[in-house]
Design brief:
- Helices cover 21% and strands 31% of the residues.
- The protein has 118 residues and is an alpha+beta fold.
- The protein has one domain (2-98): TATA-Binding Protein.
- A hairpin with a 7-residue loop joins strand 3 (38-41) and strand 4 (49-55).
């Protein structure tokens, strides 16, 4: 799973601009589903979707690919590439977090029980 935040410039209204572009088919490769809460890619080989929300000028996204885990990067790179190409003047920065499986630490062993003396 990949999480990222897009911080828009002051007064840019990037969320509304992106939502309008997807609904008007100006962004032909992306579309909205689930009442606008999910962003999907039109290419079926880009498995998964992106959950997104907006608050105080920050768009928070989470890329999910349950059918093919590990391929979230394709949808992520397509979306960020489109943002950089068409909407770079509205964006201040993009923060990325890669949430992979946690590394397994050493196993904690239980102390041996003391034997009862007979």
């Amino acid at each position: 799973m990949i999480r990222f935040q897009v911080i828009e410039r002051r007064g840019a209204n990037l969320y509304q601009v992106l939502r309008g572009a997807m609904r008007s088919k100006e962004l032909r490769t992306f579309y909205l589903a689930m009442h606008g809460r999910r962003v999907c890619h039109t290419n079926p080989s880009y498995s998964g979707w992106m959950r997104w929300s907006h608050a105080d000028g920050v768009i928070t996204c989470q890329v999910v690919s349950p059918r093919q885990p590990g391929t979230e990067w394709r949808l992520f790179s397509a979306f960020v590439g489109r943002l950089a190409d068409r909407f770079a003047d509205l964006i201040q920065c993009v923060n990325i977090q890669f949430n992979g499986p946690l590394p397994k630490g050493p196993l904690k062993r239980r102390p041996k029980r003391a034997r009862r003396k007979r």
